[in-house]
Amino acid sequence: MDDGIPSLNTAHIKGSMNEELESTLKDYSAIQAAIEQLHWDQETMMPKNGLPMRKAQLSYLTEEAQDILTSERLEKALSSYEDSDDETHHAVVRELRRIQERAKQVPSALTKKVSDAETETVEVWRRARKEDDFSVFKDRLEEMVSLKQDVAEAIDDTREPYEVLFEAYEPHIEMETVERIFDHLTKELPRRLERVKQSDVSTPSPFTGSFDAETQEQVAKGIMADLGLSPENSRLNLSTHPFTVGSPFETRITTRIDESDMMKALSSTVHECGHGLYAVGLDEDNWWNPLGWDRDLTVHESQSRFWENHVGHRQSFFDYLLPVLNRHFRGEFDEVTSREAYEAVNAVKEDNYIRTEADELTYHLHVAIRFEIGRDLINGDLAVDDLQEAWNERMESYLGLSPDTVKEGVLQDIHWAQGQFGYFPTYTLGSMLAAQLNEAIEDDVDVDGAIRNEDFEEILGWHSQRVHRHGQRLTTPELIRSATGGELRVDAYLDHIDAKLHDVYDVRM
Predict the structure, then answer these.
(1) Considering the entire predicted model, what is its pTM?
(2) Nearest Cα to 418, choosing from 142, 114, 157?
(3) Of 332, 347, 44, residue with least CA distance to 211
(4) Can you spell out the DSSP letters for 381-441?
(5) Which residues pair with 236 in a beta bridge?
(6) How many helices and strands in the chain, by DSSP H and E?
(7) Which of 47, 71, 361, 391 is the most exposed place for a label (fewest CB within 10 A)?
């Protein structure tokens, strides 16, 4: 049956690249994996005094990776490969030429400066958060903004710097599309938020109270295994800001635990599992080339947001989860119904300042703040000295909130400390795609039935076929059309949100 999914002849892919290209790309991919794992270690396990050596390690490996991309060795190997008529070869050349051209434009000395700054600035951000003092971080952020402006100018000084940086995270979606989506959301979501504020529906949470951290961690590990991440191919650690690194062979996810609110750990774990399942679902035989690499952050975020919002927030998920919690917490959830849990988890958090703890409605207003302000910073339209004021004004405008501390405001996210300007829009792009994937999977899979039967493999298998197996063979728009039958759009997400608002709050839009 023709399901609209392009065929993928993996047998043909294996061994079809020339030996020099394969050898070169294996060196590059191994270095990139080592960089990821060193960053993971820095956020989870590295002793405080390990920073000088970590800085030297990351600086060396980053330069080595750039040297490979800009080397005559890669150029010769790629040139002899790009004359092929094979469709998969075209995809490999397309993606390698893209990252190669960007690497060639950035001087090696600038690459080293950026790497050193990223390693050090994260630690300064961590200290500024602990002290709740933006002045501790301000000078470092100014340096980071300046360095990333230099990178953007080196790559392409004819275009908006933020757009150039955004392409490192999503190279195949145009800024015009990003603007259109955010314009739509920032008009539509405040209307829905106001309607919810007018509702008198109460949604008390059974997940607030006092819950032992070690027990929560055991629950999180059990959920990981049930969703498809076994101890043989994954591990879980704690971090300030949950994140994931991974390959087809193994993935490492982190979560955060709050003993007074269990949903922080549950939601972040399911979210990061989505990233991890994508990583280990990529083509193992092509781990070293674009056919086995993830399709950038819009698609990556679609996987995490699908599992978090379209699996983990269903009532059927609590039919599965509540018995698990009762086993671990000695019957504490005996009197909780799946409907009560569902309503609590899907409640709109009117007074929440933190993006990673936001509900599905307000989340994209939090992202819009970061997109707009980050863009202004990089484009030179906003000074770091004015950042706090601009942040607070935007938060008041979109969410009706004014943070009392910088931990609730400009210092809550790690991304700018890591130099990741251009990253934030992919959270929203990925969420839009997740809603479209949810529409599409409903035609093929009884998702609620699968969850209640703890048959997460059926859901994962659908994503493996539609998304994971393609790697970077398709561009992002091509993958979206292949997986969902249409272009990236906002209405699937709004339909999903409106259905929940009606279900929980009896609000109609």
Answers:
(1) 0.95
(2) 114
(3) 332
(4) SS-GGGHHHHHHHHHHHHHS---SSTTTTTTS-STTTTT-TT-THHHHHHHHHHHHHHHHH
(5) 253
(6) 21, 3
(7) 47
